[in-house]
Design a protein that fits this description.
The protein is an alpha/beta fold. The protein contains 16 helices and 15 strands. The strands form 5 sheets. The protein has a 4-stranded parallel β-sheet, sandwiched between helices. Strands 5-6-7-8 form a 4-stranded antiparallel β-sheet, with helices on one face. Bound molecules: zinc ion (ZN).
Amino acid sequence: MLQIYNTLTRQKEYFRPIHKGHVGMYVCGPTVYGDAHLGHARPAITFDLLFRYLQHLGYKVRYVRNITDVGHLEHDADEGEDKIAKKARLEQLEPMEVVQYYTNRYHHDMEQLNVLPPSIEPHASGHIIEQIAFVQKILDKGYAYVSNGSVYMDVEKYAKDFHYGKLSGRNLNDIVTETRELDGQDEKKHSYDFALWKKASPEHIMRWPSPWSDGFPGWHMECSTMGTKYLGEEFDIHGGGMDLMFPHHEAEIAQSCAALGHDTVHYWMHNNMITIAGKKMGKSYNNFITLEQFFTGQHELLEQPFAPMTIRFFILTAHYRSTVDFSNDALVAAEKGLVRLKEAYTRLQQLQPSALTTVDVKGLREKCEEAMDDDLNSPIVIGHLFESARAINTVYDGKGTISATDLAELKNVWHTFVVEILGLKMDDGNQTDSNKQKAYKGAVDLLLNMRLEAKQNKDWALSDHIRNQLTALGFQIKDKKDGFEWSL
Ligand code: ZN
C-alpha cells in the first residue's frame, strides 16, 4: 500500500484518498516569464512520477497544475514589479504575449522530458472573478482588512484561531525578523501580513476592477482559488518545490482555512532542490541553465549536450526528497546508466525462452512496487532494474536460460516500470538526437576555430567568409576576448 511523506505531519502516511478510486492533486506550476530551467524540471518530473504511479494503482486522477501569469512580484512575496509585466515592458510586448510565448516553450520542454500534461492547466489571469470572491470570503470572516485599496491578510488575528506556520514550522517571531522592509509595509498592520489583493500603481499594466480598487490578486491567492474550484473544498494532494513551502504554501493554508474554516489539503508533498556543481542556482552564480541549453549543450558550464531522457533519468536516480547536484560528470554517468538500461531493454525483446529459468528474475514486480509504495523511492526501483539487467545479459550471452512464463513476466514488468511509471522512452531517437547535437556543435565550433586561426594569420578574407556564410545560415556569432560564442 502506498505511503507518502506528508510535509504537514512530518511523517510517512498511508495514502487514503477522500473519494474511493479518485485522487485530486494540485501542483504549483511555473511563472511564465522565462525559459524553464532545471528547477522547473524537478517538480514536473517528481509529480509526473506520482501521477503515473497513482494511475498504475488504478486511481482516476484529476491533476491540476497551474500557470502563474499575474501577481508573482519580483521580490517573491508581494512587493516589486510583476515578473511578467516587467518582461513585457523590457521586450515591448503585451503581457499575454509573454505568457503565451513562455507557456508554449514550457509545454515543449515538458514534452521533451516525457512529462504528461495535467488534466487541467488553469491560468491565474483566467480566474480573477473567483479570486475576488475568495478574498471577499476572507474579509467576511474577519481575517483580512482593506488598506488604501489593497486587501491584506490579518495574520495576527488568524494566528489566534488557527496555527499559522504549521507547514513550514516557523512561528510569528521568526517571520517578523525575516520580513524585509519594503514598499507598502506602511499599509500593513504588521510586516508579516501578506497581500490578497493589491491596488495597481498608475504604471502597473496588469489590472482588473474589484470592489476595493483597480488592481490584481496577490500571488498566493490563485492556488487557494483554483485548487478548491477544480478539486473541491477538501482534496488529496498538494505538491510543489520545497522553496514554495514558505511563504507561498503557508499563505495558501491560511487563506483556505480563513475562508472555509478548515484545511483543504490532506497530503502536502515537496520535492527537494537542485544544486549545480555544489552551488544553489542563482543569477549571481551564472548557473541558471535552461532545459533548452542542456538539450543543445549551449552553456559555458556544459561540456556536452544532454538528451532530455538523460535529464529525466538523472532526476529519478535521486529520491525526490533528497537534494540533487548537477555536474557534467554526474550527467555523463547518468547517460551511461541509461544506455545500459536501454541495451538490456532491447536485449530483453530478443531473448528466446527455454524450458527452465536459471537466472534470478523472481519477485521483480513486487520489489519495484514495494519501492514505489515507500514514498516513491525511484532510485531503489532503478537499482532493482539494473540487477534485472544483469540477469537479462546473462541469458543474452548464453550463460543462463529463462522460461517462457518468466520471460513474458519480465517483459511486462520492464514495460510497466521503465516505460509507464518512470516514463523513460526506450525506443526514441533521444540518444541519436544527442549524438547529432554533439556532432552539430562540434562542426560549428570547428568552423569558428578555423576562423579564429584565419584571424590570427590576418587572413581577413577567409575569416569574413566563414562569418558571413554562418550568419547567412542564421547563426549569431559573438566575438569574445578568449574566443567566441554562437547561437542559432
Ligand atoms: Zn501555488
